[in-house]
Amino acid sequence: MGPLHGVKVIEFAHIMAGPTCGLMLADMGADVIKVERVPDGEDTRRMTPPTIDGEAAAFLIMNRNKRGIAVDLKHEAGKQIARRLLRTADVAIENFRKGTMNRLGLGYEEMRKHNPGLIYCEVSGFGRTGPYADRGGYDLIAQGMSGLMSITGEGPGRPPVKCGAPMTDITAGILAAMGVLAAYAHMLKTGEGQRVDVSLFEAGIVHTYWQSAITFATGRPPGPMGSAHPLNAPYQAFETGDGWITIGAANQPNWLKLIEALDSSALKDDPRFATNDARMANLPALVDTLTPLFKQRTSADWLERLEAVGVPAGPVLDIAQMQADPQTIARQMVIEVPHSRLKKHKTVGAPVKFSATPGEITRGAPILGEHTREVMREYGYTDGEIGALAADGTVIAA
After folding, report:
1. Could you tell me if 361 and 27 are in contact, meaning their C-beta atoms sit under 8 angstroms apart?
2. Domain ranges, residue 20
3. How far apart are CA 263 and CA 88, in angstroms?
4. pTM of this prediction?
5. What is the spatial distance between Cα 204 and Cα 300, in angstroms, rounded to a whole number?
6. Same domain for 31 and 91?
7. Do 377 and 347 share a domain, yes or no?
8. Of 54, 93, 94, 240, which is the most buried if we count CB atoms within 10 A?
9. Domain edge (last residue) among 258, 291, 315
10. How many of the other CB atoms lie within 10 Å of CB of 54?
11. How many domains does the chain have?
12. C-alpha torsion angle, residues 359, 373, 51, 340 (rounded to 10)
């Protein structure tokens, strides 16, 4: 049933950051009702290719475990539907530009009059305060402005590179879920709801802890280092005889174990590499010294040797290899879920496991308007009223 069983969440969110928050809550058992616009639904439905039998893969991955309704919020009757949902909701999630929900009469100050315990989560590009509050924001923009792109890439003098994953979108969604849960704990104690304000910009900044610490201490911002670490060495990817592996010899005991695995007494006696300070000061030389050694054996050989001596290491997998990895399977991070049109499809599993209240992914992403009739009935609408609202285009009831 999940630890959030019984919690009602209304998601007015699109693309990734807001839907990630809804996804996290749904996986923990909350009843997440996704409100999509009429007539086309949210934009992720058109982020194609690829599709799975005509259904956008992007939409499927972000919206499993949710119920979906389609409502025209520009129509007064549609706004009334949304208000009815929010008056008994525990949580609302929205990631529109500042002021959009207020103009619809669905903003926090209006809804708290009818539901003082409502937790109202707003996910935006730059937050609801400050000089950039009115700006729209995307992951790419947030990665650039948060400093992430200045520390990502192969090295100095190369073009800026963003993280391959939409780091600030996903992190903002996870932070939003964390904020919602903290606000929910407060609400249970006091009965008082509140706004939760999360931004992509700040979601990027929190990934700069090490680099910000270095800048605070030295006044000099560090740049990109490829796969290397700004504070420890060797802690990066190395090429082997047939691929790449990552090495986490990030402290002195692991460095000595690595020397054992490499069977190189010369490394142990080299003053350039005697301590972590020395290894960081001589990092290019360290990499130049270790790379020919790693190229002498295959990745599998090295991983076996490194595991035997206790040095953290791993292969560099592509996404398909990751999905097939036995640890991925054992942790149920690739699963199949039922879908009303596709019968079933694969999705990424829930990353948080609970011993007493395990969550469960029981449904695939909704087709547009799939649960409109079901949800509206729960909120007191008759079949005749629903049929009339569908006939005039206020809702889509699949």
Report:
1. yes
2. 8-206+325-396
3. 66
4. 0.95
5. 35
6. yes
7. yes
8. 93
9. 315
10. 8
11. 2
12. 70
Helix (H, G, I), strand (E, B) or coil at 396: strand
Kindly tell me the sign of the dihedral angle through the C-alpha atoms of 46, 50, 56, 61: negative
**CATH number of the domain within which 249 lies:** 3.30.1540.10
Q: Does 144 fall in a domain?
A: yes
Shared domain for 339 and 297, answered yes or no, is no
22 and 155 inside one domain = yes
**C-alpha distances out from residue 345 to 289, 301, 348, 364, Å:** 47, 36, 10, 7
Tens of pLDDT, residue by residue, the chain (398 residues): 899 999 999 999 999 999 999 999 999 999 999 999 999 999 999 999 999 999 999 999 999 999 999 999 999 999 999 999 999 999 999 999 999 999 999 999 999 999 999 999 999 999 999 999 999 999 999 999 999 999 999 998 899 999 999 999 999 999 999 999 999 999 999 999 999 999 999 999 999 999 999 999 999 999 999 999 999 999 999 999 999 999 999 899 999 999 999 999 889 899 999 999 999 999 999 999 999 999 999 999 999 999 999 999 999 999 999 999 999 999 999 999 999 999 999 999 999 999 999 988 999 999 999 999 999 999 999 999 999 999 999 999 98
Q: SS3 for 155?
A: coil
Q: Which of 119, 235, 219 has its CA nearest to residue 179?
A: 119
Active site residues: 169
Residues 142 and 253 placed together within one structural domain of the fold: no
**Do 118 and 193 touch, CB atoms closer than 8 A?**
yes
Structure token digits, residue 264: 């190189």
